[in-house]
Amino acid sequence: MKTRGRINFTLSMLIIIIAAFILVNGVTIGNYQIKSLSKVVKLGLDLKGGVYVEEEIVDKNVSKDTIERTRDLIELRVNSLGVSEPIVAITGSNRIRVEIPGIYDPKAALEQIGKTGRLRFVGPNNDEIVTGKDVADATVGVNQQTNAPVVQLKLNAEGAKKFAEATQKYLGKQIAIYMDDELVSAPSVQDVIPNGEAIITGSKNVEEAKRLAGIIKSGALPVKLNPATIRAIGPALGAEAIPTSLKAAAIGILLVMLFMLVYYKIPGFIANLALTVYMMITALIFTLVLKATLTLPGIAGLLLSVGMAVDANVLIFERIKEELKLGKSLRTAIDAGFKRAFTSIFDSNITTLIAGFVLYFVGTGSVKGFALTLNIGVLASMFTAITVTRFLLKSFVNAGWITNSKFYGA
């Protein structure tokens, strides 16, 4: 049992240390790279700065499908700005929230988001051939002969009929594509297109083809929008808040770990390992599973849940101390300690979870972010306290390195 316990504990500790190192620093193995957490996590507007716009749908009795279509079209327009990690989400029953990091001109952003966007295909005689309502889809592809990026255009049945007549009429000539009064592209008709499926060549690179496809696909918004909230957030707040928040988090976590180590000794050391696992699990859930955006309230929620993760371990270790003082063996005291502490841990966390769920479903904006991070943190802390701490502590005791109960807080 000693050998198995020593192998289990040593391997577990090595895995935790290596995983923590990779998350903090990243690693490159051959052509495969695992990025560090700081390079993967997305920062919210309050940390990165940018434009916050909330558009209200003026039309009444708009269907859910129409609202989602509007959201998708706005997202295409925002993406055409070339910004990274914009957020376009439906808020409530008739609002669409747009967060554009890295852009600080609300007027320019608003024009791009809410413009009428009348898309037209115009012939050499200035006659309108098809409009945005005739476009079914526009995607980026590759010309099989030249390997150059192209825009694959697909028209609906009505548009296909009109386009077939126009391409026959203007074979060898240009058909101009306008968004409002802006000339987007002017490809030449090389063949008659009878089925409404065409390709537009001439894009210099994939990005240019993506932009053209996005503009063609976005077309006109199906509803009228009215800006309800417009706010520009400067990057200075994030530049000051990020290092300050990280410094506060590091000091707080180190003090907590030091206290656990000094007061609870071996169990405190085990709790610190479990706390490291908790932080890794929480980080992976946010970055890889939820792909969430980190905001200042989110950081506050995470730090609060760190404290709750330690609270669960304190409850367990206090029960173990009581069992040891009754004269029970280490293994018996640990089993009894976990069993007696479970009810208290469950009760204290379930009330926090209830409050967190209420905040998430009733609250808006930053309150939702705080509630989400708090709930995930609480669930992860319960998991690590009940399973990881238990496994590590039992493995350490089974290893037989230190058997004196004084080192276990008794």
TrEMBL record:
SUPFAM superfamilies: Multidrug efflux transporter AcrB transmembrane domain. Residues 126-223 form the SecDF P1 head subdomain domain. It comes from the Bacteria. Residues 67-123 form the Protein translocase subunit SecDF P1 domain. It is a multi-pass membrane protein. GO terms for cellular component: plasma membrane. Its main location: membrane. The chain crosses the membrane at residues 7-29, 246-264, 269-290, 296-320, 341-363, 369-393. It is found in: Cell membrane. One of its GO terms (biological process) is protein transport by the Sec complex. Residues 229-394 form the Protein export membrane protein SecD/SecF C-terminal domain. GO terms for molecular function: protein-transporting ATPase activity. Coiled coil: none annotated. InterPro entries: SecD, SecD/SecF_arch_bac, SecD_1st, SecD_SecF_C, SecD_SecF_C_bact, SecDF_P1_head. Keywords: Cell membrane, Membrane, Protein transport, Translocation, Transmembrane, Transmembrane helix, Transport. Pfam families: SecD_1st, SecD_SecF_C, SecDF_P1_head. Gene3D superfamilies: 3.30.1360.200, Multidrug efflux transporter AcrB transmembrane domain. Part of the Sec protein translocase complex. Interacts with the SecYEG preprotein conducting channel. SecDF uses the proton motive force (PMF) to complete protein translocation after the ATP-dependent function of SecA. Forms a complex with SecF. Part of the essential Sec protein translocation apparatus which comprises SecA, SecYEG and auxiliary proteins SecDF. Other proteins may also be involved. Belongs to the SecD/SecF family. SecD subfamily. NCBIfam families: 2A0604s01 (TIGR00916), secD (TIGR01129). This is Protein translocase subunit SecD. It comes from Caloramator mitchellensis. The lineage of its organism: Bacteria, Bacillati, Bacillota, Clostridia, Eubacteriales.
